[in-house]
Amino acid sequence: MAFTRKDEFKAFDKKVWLASPTMHGEELAYVTEAYETNWMSTVGENINQVEKIAAEKAEVKYAVGLSCCTAALHLCCKLAGERLYGKPAISHGAL
Fold first, then answer.
1. Per-residue pLDDT of the chain (95 residues; tens, 9 = 90+)
2. Residues 6+ apart with CB under 8 A from 63
3. Structural domain harbouring 72
4. Is 71 within a domain?
5. DSSP state of 37
6. CA 61 – CA 77 distance, rounded (Å)
7. Nearest partner of 77 among 61, 85, 60, 67, judged by Cα
8. pTM: predicted TM-score of the whole model, two decimal places
9. Residue 65 belongs to a domain
10. Virtual torsion, Cα 66, 67, 72, 78, nearest 10 deg
């Protein structure tokens, strides 16, 4: 299906930033290191350290760094369901 109303919309004259792309302190060094060591993902030494520090701060054994807030919210809802209703049977999905 083609977009038929394209003439009704006009492009912005200026960019509308949802968040300014800025880095302060050591962030650029961490991004550069991840790029140069081919660890542009949710794994790697920097992520391991973040998870370790988060676990220590939360006084828990483990913490997991996720790639987006949606994944974090999904895990929160899953945990809340398990705390309320118990774990689902294998291959029966989430509660």
1. 566 777 777 777 887 777 776 777 888 888 888 888 887 777 777 888 889 999 999 999 999 988 788 999 998 998 898 888 888 778 776 55
2. 51, 52, 54, 55
3. 44-89
4. yes
5. T
6. 21
7. 85
8. 0.54
9. yes
10. -80
Helix ranges, the chain (H):
27-36, 45-58, 69-85
Give a yes or no: residue 12 inside a domain: no
- The reply to whether 53 falls in a domain is yes
Tell me the residue length of the chain.
95
CB-based contact 46:34 (threshold 8 Å): yes
Residues 6+ apart with CB under 8 A from 1: none
Structural domains in the chain (count): 1
Q: Which residue has the tokens 């973040």?
A: 50
Give the integer Cα–Cα distance in Å for 63 and 82. Answer: 18
| Tokens 């550069």 belong to residue | 32
